[in-house]
Specification:
Number of domains: 2
CATH superfamily of the largest domain: tm_1862 like domain
Shape: globular
Distance between the termini: 38 Å
Strand content: 5-15%
Number of strands: 19
CATH class of the largest domain: Alpha Beta
Number of helices: 18
Low-confidence stretches: 1-68, 73-88
Length: 552
């Protein structure tokens, strides 16, 4: 999932019997029960958990003996009192979306949508919000550096990030690939910080667990420019690896999972805000994501739902957002229409993990209204659609509403593995979905199918057979290199087999290297499959171009 607002909780805060500690600062003693997230903790933290270590969180102090960060996961009323009682109007909050450090990256409709929703939520509660997105390809200083008036765009607003080779982390140096920073050069980032007013607090988001070095670097530079400004880290990485984030990130506060109300309470304490009304919980139907913080938009990410009702063995959606919640159709339409009319956005990517679930009550009215209102946009589904929900009716509406890029999840054609990984699709259901999409008018080069290589127990021959199966149906193949995500069933299976450890550096979760490191795939094997896919996909694209030329 590209951008999750939510996530499950990994620690439990318990009120102690003694709530005061002598000293010049007001302290709030709490007990952290680490049992819930101990599987993800470094060994040093596991020792603390085993000893039922009790630590104090001083609101202005340290995470005692282990980290400078404070793990914020308590109810709003349990937060310590602020030293300040003076009300500050319009406190300035800086939102930061860091770079990507990886072997490869591409802007396939990537926007920090969770951070933008948090920005909208903060505005509702009186905060003045600003944004630095290190992945913004329209940054004016970046374009001047490149000698361009605009970024080079590929299909539907996608494109390549600016990139520079950087030093490869020690744990990854055995792999002969250039390690790169994708996004703004550091000198541009630092220049933007130097010319900005001092914020009252900084919120840093994060995505993949193995992208954490870029997050750490952003926090380091932020502390250099604003040494006394509290930095709060959230997003996917601390939700899946909270112990690692607390111990190593350098953030002053780490917030895993769904904690927007706690975030507001923390910010109120840090900035001296006094509220006469109780906090409202985040409801994305009533919040406008802060897309106005971008000067230019080639595309926008859209969420019509949070979470997923399926429980696939390799997916962390349930941990990031335990409950499946669908937005009101009119709220989704309003978001799309506002961006269409006010910002001239013509490409929208749905970030949903389960877009087609409850189709008649949810997506169908959205599609029908898009058609009726003549919202002439291109829609894309970078997250895989569930094939079992695609039929003649849904396929026709998707086509008429302007969907241009479809991704469908198949993973494998092996029936046993399909059941083991979650049972969300069968080969018959998949073939029925493909026929419906083709009947509706979708061309082969508009439909990409996600397949796995490297699932535990999956053989090379199984992946090759799945590739040829998809090609024979006239579709594009999108190969996904498996890597385990903390907390999933596949993670547990590999951990029990001794293939991975909770103490492993999250850098080793990287799908670019996990196949070779743990699954013992040969480079030549994987490269031969990539070459096969490249040739087969070229055939599909050529066939589509020929068909279109004949039709014209």
């Amino acid at each position: 999932m590209y951008s999750s607002i939510g996530g499950s909780m990994y620690a439990e805060i318990i009120e102690p019997s003694c709530a005061t500690v002598p000293g010049p600062l007001l302290r709030h003693s709490i007990t952290i029960a680490l049992h819930a997230f101990s599987p993800w903790l470094p060994s040093s933290e596991k020792i603390l958990a085993a000893e039922k270590y009790v630590t104090e969180l001083d609101f202005y102090g340290e995470f005692r003996q282990r980290s400078n960060a404070k793990f914020l996961n308590c109810a709003a009323h349990e937060l310590p009192m602020s030293r300040s009682t003076q009300k500050t109007k319009f406190s300035r909050i800086l939102l930061v979306n860091p770079w990507i450090y990886d072997f490869s990256a591409f802007d396939l409709w990537i926007k920090p949508l969770g951070l933008l929703y948090v920005g909208g939520y903060l505005r509702q509660h009186g905060y003045d919000v600003h944004l630095i997105d290190c992945l913004d390809r329209h940054n004016p200083q970046l374009l001047r550096l490149q000698g361009r008036t605009g970024p080079q765009l590929k299909a539907y607003g996608t494109g390549k990030f600016f990139r520079r080779v950087i030093k490869t982390p020690e744990v990854l140096r055995q792999f002969p690939y250039p390690y790169r920073c994708y996004g703004l050069p550091e000198e541009i980032f630092c220049g933007m910080l130097a010319h900005r007013p001092r914020p009252d607090a900084i919120l840093v988001t994060s995505m993949m667990t193995y992208w954490y070095p870029a997050v750490f670097r952003a926090i380091e530079l932020l502390k250099q420019h604003f040494p006394h400004v509290p930095i709060i880290l959230g997003g996917v990485y601390p939700s899946l690896c909270p112990g690692h984030a607390v111990c190593h990130s350098g953030a002053d506060y780490v917030i895993p999972g769904q904690a927007t109300d706690r975030l507001i309470t923390l910010l109120d304490q840090l900035t001296g805000q006094i509220r006469k009304k109780s906090l409202s919980r985040l409801n994305i139907d009533h919040i406008t994501p802060a897309y106005d913080l971008y000067e230019h938009l080639d595309y926008a990410g859209i969420l019509s739902s949070l979470g997923c009702p399926f429980r696939c063995s390799y997916c962390a959606s349930q941990r990031l957002c335990p409950n499946f919640v669908q937005r009101e159709p009119e709220a989704v339409l309003s978001t799309i229409q506002d961006l269409f009319e006010q910002r001239s956005v013509r490409n929208f990517a749905f970030y949903d993990d389960a877009l087609l679930v409850n189709f008649h009550a949810h997506l169908q009215p959205i599609l029908e209204q898009l058609i009726q209102r003549n919202v002439s946009c291109c829609f894309h589904t970078p997250n895989g659609l569930h094939a079992k929900y695609i039929n003649d009716e849904s396929a026709e509406l998707l086509f008429q509403a302007g969907f241009k890029t479809l991704r469908i999840s198949l993973e494998t054609i092996d029936p046993t593995r399909q059941k083991e990984t979650g049972g969300k699709v069968t080969n018959n259901e998949f073939e029925h979905a493909v026929r419906a999409l083709q009947k509706a008018g979708f061309q082969g080069d508009q439909i990409g199918v996600y397949l796995f290589i490297g699932l535990p127990g999956q053989q090379y021959e199984e992946t090759e057979a799945t590739i040829r199966y998809v090609h024979n149906l006239g579709l594009l193949v999108n190969l996904c290199e498996f890597s385990p995500i903390p907390g999933t069933r596949e993670w547990t299976r590999l951990e029990r087999a001794g293939s991975i450890s909770a103490n492993d550096d999250p850098l080793l979760h990287n799908n670019s290297i996990f196949l070779y490191l743990r699954q013992r795939y040969g480079f030549e094997q994987v490269q031969s499959l990539r070459n096969l896919i490249r040739a087969l996909n070229a055939t599909i694209r050529s066939r589509t171009e020929t068909t279109q030329a004949i039709a014209e």
